[in-house]
Amino acid sequence: MSAPLSPELARLVEAARLVREHAYAPYSGFRVGAAIETPSGAVYAGANVENASYGATICAERSAVACMVAAGESAIARVAVYTEADTLSMPCGICRQVLGEFAKSATVVAAGPSGARTVPFAELLPEPFGFAPPGVGP
After folding, report:
1. CA 105 to each of CA 17, 27, 53, 57, 126: distance values in angstroms, whole numbers, following the listed order
2. pLDDT in the model for residue 2
3. Residue 3 pLDDT > 80, yes or no?
4. Where does the pLDDT of residue 136 fall: very low under 50, low under 70, confident under 90, or very high at 90 and above?
5. Is 84 a catalytic residue?
């Protein structure tokens, strides 16, 4: 486990813990909450939403990213993921790729009843896939 969380990360973990209560997980029973903070200080939270067609399931992290983008923001400073699992749960591979669009220098904290672990996002996805359509960006 890491050192005690900063007040900023503790606030974000609490937002993730609270939104987890709204998760829709009738198939797996694995409810997840995520909260992201942007450089502006805004916090966007999301919960996982399962579907009978598992491929249509949306993870909590991607749900939070969608809320952020819908609000007009496009950068992430911090990410918190909260589960009640015995083992801390970092974002899955798909979520890491989606977060990589917005969170290149973000801090990620996985938290639960057993504590919390904080890592730089770059450690979770050191070489993300990238794509620049012709004529767009470097």
Report:
1. 23, 34, 34, 27, 11
2. 53
3. no
4. low
5. no
Q: What span, in angstroms and rounded, lies between the C-alpha atoms of 95 and 98?
A: 5
On the question of pLDDT at 39 being above 90, the answer is yes
Strands 33-37 and 78-82: antiparallel
Nearest CA to 99 out of 72, 71, 79, 119 is that of 79
Burial of 34 (0-12, 13-18, 19+ CB in 10 A): buried
Active-site residue (options: 50, 61, 84, 127): 61
Cα 46 versus chain centre, distance:
8
Tokens of 81: 């993921």
Q: What's the rounded mean pLDDT across residues 48-56?
A: 96
Q: Which of 79, 111, 84 is nearest to 95 (CA)?
A: 79
